[in-house]
């Protein structure tokens, strides 16, 4: 059975991700990117960036947010405009690493992992100062937020991921072992980017030092590997990763997209597979339109276009989706399973909407 691309915008009440164009497991993007933020030269003007580390796209507003690490600020850029002139919405933050933007009733709320400041800050709309959330987050790098506004933050130097609760104002370890690194499933090594799947209450971690992506279910005592090889040795083959810093998950298909930083590529990893597909980059380190220099994060807009935070080229690149057809009957067997999977997921989402509406 072939993959069926399904529009499920009527399920917006359960998941914001479902209101966007669905991305086929066989989708293809242009091999050449277009610079949408920065100009490739380090600088601090409104058209320049300095070692950006994180990006986030608010799909409803079609707006790109950038953690402009070297300039100690967060930039906002409407993707509908033709120029790359950005607006500074957060300032004087010592090396922001990753960001999460929540679409609250009173406007966008920006959550920032502050690397040098060892903390997470929350900036409400038009705020002039951020509010620290929770305790110290040492060498804070990754950040994610769930439906209950719990904030997840990765401590790069302490080998763990913390969770801060707005109900209790307490912070606790939810992944990894504090100050202990290892290669088995209960350990992390230099955790970087995070992604929280709100549909399944699952946390995904770019376990950079172990060259893998780990999936941690709610209240789990250990994770499971969803991308990377069975060893912790880095490699450039498509079954391996090399110090990945960013992860993005399709909450419908559970396909994992990775900013494979030291391999200078973006790679797609289908569930229960041992190899990935390179969808952008992979042409060595450089500043050509088909190259990256240490990509650290990625995101997709509502049309399925790919955006990459190209850190040491001081820019954000956009790769247009050029083929979003369903997988054909000649596609590999691992992709043919998605028709049934997606239909089941849709049914479960409908039931979830009904239950949440009742209670």
UniProtKB/TrEMBL annotation:
Pfam families: NHL
Keywords: Glycoprotein, Repeat, Signal
Swiss-Prot/TrEMBL NHL repeat ranges: 175-219, 286-322
Domain of life where this protein originates: Eukaryota
CDD domains xref list: NHL
Region (Disordered): 223-243
Annotated signal peptide: 1-20
InterPro entries reported in the protein's UniProt record: 6-blade_b-propeller_TolB-like, NHL_repeat
Biased composition (Polar residues): 223-238
Protein name according to UniProt: Uncharacterized protein
Organism: Rotaria sordida
Lineage: Eukaryota, Metazoa, Spiralia, Gnathifera, Rotifera
């Amino acid at each position: 059975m072939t993959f069926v691309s399904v529009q499920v915008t009527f399920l917006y009440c359960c998941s914001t991700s479902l209101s966007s164009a669905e991305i086929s497991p066989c989708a293809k993007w242009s091999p050449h990117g277009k610079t949408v933020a920065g100009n490739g030269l380090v600088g601090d003007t409104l058209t320049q960036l300095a070692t950006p580390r994180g990006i986030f796209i608010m799909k409803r507003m079609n707006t790109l947010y950038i953690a402009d690490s070297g300039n100690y600020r967060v930039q906002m850029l409407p993707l509908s405009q033709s120029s790359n002139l950005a607006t500074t919405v957060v300032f004087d933050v010592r090396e922001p690493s990753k960001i999460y933007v929540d679409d609250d009733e009173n406007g966008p709320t920006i959550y920032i992992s502050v690397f040098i400041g060892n903390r997470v800050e929350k900036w409400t709309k038009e705020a002039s100062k951020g509010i620290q959330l929770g305790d110290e987050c040492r060498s804070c790098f990754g950040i994610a937020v769930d439906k209950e506004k719990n904030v997840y933050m990765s401590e790069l130097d302490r080998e763990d991921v913390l969770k801060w609760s707005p109900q209790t104002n307490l912070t606790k370890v939810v992944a990894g072992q504090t100050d202990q690194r290892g290669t088995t499933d209960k350990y992390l090594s230099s955790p970087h980017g995070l992604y929280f799947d709100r549909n399944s209450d699952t946390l995904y971690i770019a376990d950079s030092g172990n060259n893998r992506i780990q999936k941690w279910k709610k209240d789990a005592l250990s994770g499971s590997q969803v991308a990377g090889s069975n060893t912790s040795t880095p490699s450039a083959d498509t079954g391996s990763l090399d110090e990945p810093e960013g992860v993005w998950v399709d909450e419908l298909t559970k396909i994992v997209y990775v900013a494979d930083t030291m391999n200078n590529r973006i790679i797609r990893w289908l569930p229960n597979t041992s190899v990935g597909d390179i969808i952008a980059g992979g042409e060595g380190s450089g500043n050509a339109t088909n190259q990256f220099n240490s990509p650290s994060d990625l995101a997709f807009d509502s049309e399925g276009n790919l955006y990459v935070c190209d850190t040491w080229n001081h820019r954000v690149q956009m790769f247009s989706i050029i083929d979003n057809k369903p997988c054909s009957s000649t596609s590999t067997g691992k992709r043919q399973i998605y028709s049934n999977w997606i239909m089941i997921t849709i049914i479960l989402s409908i039931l979830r909407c009904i239950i949440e509406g009742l209670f």
